[in-house]
Design a protein that fits this description.
alpha/beta, Rossmann fold, 2 domains, globular, five-stranded parallel sheet, about 45% helix, 11 strands, about 15% strand, single chain
Length: about 350
C-alpha cells in the first residue's frame, strides 16, 4: 500500500507526477539518479509524517547547504526534530545538499526553487555576487531567505541565524592562548573556504584576539579544502612539513579526523585543538579526548528560529523577522550533552 500521494512525492522531489508514477510502477526509461531522487523524497516524507498529520496551514521550506555531509546531516536532523513543535503551522522541508562546487551550480539550485515555488529558503552558501543575486531574485518573488551559519549581509535575506562568528574566533584564541602557552609553538588555523563569510569572520576574530593575548605566536593557515577529509589531510600534512613548530589547532572548517591523522603520521600531537559544532566526528573525537573543546551552538534552536523568521515573513506569527545571535557553548569531554550520538 502506497503511503504517500504521487502529488506529494512529486512536490517533495521537484519532479513531475508522471515521472514519479513511472518510477513507482517500475516503467522503463527512468534514470537511476531519478529513481534515487524519488526514494529520497519518500524517505523525507516518512520522517516528516507526524508533522504533516498535525493539520493547519502548510508551508514548504527548502534547506540549501554547501557543507560536508557530516554537518548538513546534523542540520537536517535538527530541523526535522523541530518541525512538530511549530504547530499550528505545518512545515514540510526539501533538502538540497552539496559538499563542494561552484557558485554557479548553487545558483542553479536556487533558481530551480524559484521556478518551483517555496515558502522560504534556509541557506548556507558562499558570499559570492552570483549567490547574492539569486537570493535577491527569490526575494523579488516573495520567497524569503534566511541565512544560517554563515551570512550574506549584502543580500536581501530577511535574517541570519547562527553565532557571532567574530566572538567565536576570539573565544578560540582565548582558549588556545591559555591551554598552549609555549610562545614558540605555531597555531594552525584550518578553513573549508575563504568564500564563506562566517569562516572569514571567525578567523578575523581569532587573529585579532591573538594579537592581544599572544602577540608572539605565529599563525599558519590552511584553506580551500571544502572541509573534506582527503583534501584536509593533504593540506595539513603539507603545513606540518613546512612548519615543525605547529603545536595547536583552531579548526574553523571541519575535517578534524583528517587533521589529527596528519599529526599522527608526522609523529606529533597538538597541545590544544579547538573545533566547531557537535557533529558525529567531533562528538567521537571529544569523547576520546583527541580534541580539547568544541565551540557549539544549539542547532535545534537555530532551526526553530529560522522557521519562525519565515513564518513571521508570511505573517503567520506576530512580529517582524529579526536576527538574534545564538549563544556559544564551550563543550569539553566532561560536559558533553548525552543526546549527541558519536559517529561510527
Amino acid at each position: 500500500m502506497r503511503s504517500h500521494r504521487i502529488r506529494d512525492i512529486a512536490d517533495q522531489a521537484g519532479l513531475s507526477e508522471a515521472t514519479v508514477d513511472r518510477v513507482l510502477n517500475h516503467r522503463p526509461g527512468v534514470r537511476d539518479s531519478t529513481a534515487a531522487q524519488v526514494q529520497r523524497a519518500i524517505a523525507d516524507l516518512d520522517r516528516q509524517r507526524d508533522q504533516v498529520q498535525l493539520g493547519g496551514r502548510t508551508f514548504r521550506l527548502d534547506l540549501v547547504m554547501q557543507a560536508p555531509a557530516r554537518f548538513s546531516s546534523a542540520v537536517r536532523a535538527a530541523l526535522e526534530a523541530e518541525l512538530p513543535g511549530l504547530r499550528p503551522a505545518v512545515i514540510r522541508s526539501r533538502f538540497h545538499f552539496r559538499e563542494e562546487g561552484s557558485p554557479a551550480e548553487l545558483v542553479q539550485i536556487l533558481d530551480a526553487i524559484a521556478h518551483q515555488g517555496s515558502a522560504g529558503v534556509l541557506l548556507k552558501a558562499p558570499d559570492d555576487p552570483m549567490v547574492i543575486d539569486a537570493v535577491n531574485r527569490l526575494h523579488d518573488l516573495q520567497i524569503p531567505v534566511v541565512t544560517v551559519v554563515t551570512d550574506l549581509p549584502l543580500s536581501r535575506r530577511i535574517g541570519y541565524v547562527g553565532i557571532d562568528n567574530r566572538a567565536a574566533g576570539a573565544t578560540a584564541a582565548y582558549l588556545i592562548s591559555r591551554m598552549s602557552e609555549d610562545p614558540s609553538a605555531s597555531v594552525l588555523v584550518t578553513l573549508s573556504s575563504s568564500s564563506f563569510r562566517g569562516e572569514e569572520e571567525r578567523e578575523m576574530g581569532f587573529r585579532s584576539a591573538m594579537r592581544t593575548l599572544a602577540p608572539d605566536r605565529t599563525i599558519r593557515e590552511v584553506s580551500e579544502t571544502d572541509g573534506l577529509d582527503a583534501s584536509m589531510l593533504a593540506a595539513v600534512a603539507h603545513a606540518l612539513d613546512d612548519d615543525p613548530a605547529i603545536g595547536a589547532v583552531y579548526s574553523i572548517g571541519g575535517g578534524n579526523t583528517a587533521t589529527l591523522e596528519a599529526f599522527r603520521r608526522a609523529g606529533r600531537l597538538p597541545a590544544a585543538f579547538i573545533a566547531h559544532d557537535l557533529d558525529g566526528d567531533n562528538t567521537t573525537l571529544l569523547r576520546q579526548q583527541r580534541i580539547t573543546a568544541v565551540l557549539h551552538h544549539d542547532l535545534r534552536a537555530d532551526m526553530r528560529q529560522a522557521c519562525q523568521l519565515i513564518l513571521q515573513a508570511h505573517r503567520a506569527l506576530p512580529g517582524r523577522p529579526q536576527s538574534t545571535p545564538s549563544q556559544i557553548q564551550v563543550i569539553t569531554p566532561f560536559n558533553q550533552p548525552r543526546s549527541f550520538p558519536a559517529s561510527a
